Amino acid sequence: MFSLKNRRPLRLVQITDTHLNEPEDGHLLGMQTLHSLRCVLELVREERHQIDAFLVTGDLSQDGSLEAYHHLQRELTHFSCPSFWLAGNHDDPDNMAQAADGNEYLQPLIRTDDWQIIMLDSQVVGKVYGRLAESQLDFLDQTLAQRPDLHSLVCFHHHPVAMDCKWIDTIGIKNADDLWRVIDKHSNVRAVCWGHVHQDSDQMRGQVRLLSTPSTCIQFEPQSEDFAIDSLAPGYRWLDLNADGSIDTGVSRVEGIEFEVDYSVKGY
């Protein structure tokens, strides 16, 4: 467990799907992903003057290389706060763990006096879709039961609900019903957030807020039947977790910069 200072509100920044490569000029569908990440982080510096933690929710690397994770480390050292990482379908868990050795990055539980942030691994190695192993569901259940007094934010890479995007909805969490059975047992989950879908959304499921976040590189077109790239710019999500359990959040995107995207590519 990692303990954060009990600031009110607790100010978080979520970045996701950075898709970094070993070479600095590595790209995804024509977009240089380290460059686009740097643009997003510069926007974060301009807009968010107090950050208590970064949540980096998967597909940190496109090629799974150790150097890709070192790129991310170097970029985040410009901020004086911890960062917590999740694996996505493109990530190499061994190289990710090697880069994280001696750091807080892979801590699955972060707590303050008011909140707990639960980081779940939805990766199925070698597959694009996600699944929450029984051990992950047990950890979630036990953690929620252990501290019912704490408001809870649950994070993972893959989406647990339909995004109204036909091709994307085949590659979400395959056992999402098991996840919701655990969450529905407890009254302290305030929100879940994820990456993977390269688009932002904000909806409710009962009393639980459901949040997806844009990529720091390319975006996927909403409500598309087949793979399609959107023209929206890279971005991030900010979250202010209030002591009463409410959440203020929004998405911010880079403006005034042209990013090259190869719209002819079908699939990623």
From TrEMBL:
Presence of the UniProt keyword Metal-binding in the record: yes
CDD domains for this protein: MPP_GpdQ
InterPro entries linked to this entry: Calcineurin-like_PHP (IPR004843), CNP_phosphodiesterase-III (IPR050884), GpdQ/CpdA-like (IPR026575), Metallo-depent_PP-like (IPR029052)
GO function terms (MF aspect): 3',5'-cyclic-AMP phosphodiesterase activity
Gene3D superfamilies (UniProt xref): 3.60.21.10
SUPFAM superfamilies referenced in this protein's UniProt entry, alphabetically: Metallo-dependent phosphatases
Superkingdom classification of source: Bacteria
Protein name: 3',5'-cyclic-AMP phosphodiesterase
Origin species: Bacterioplanoides pacificum
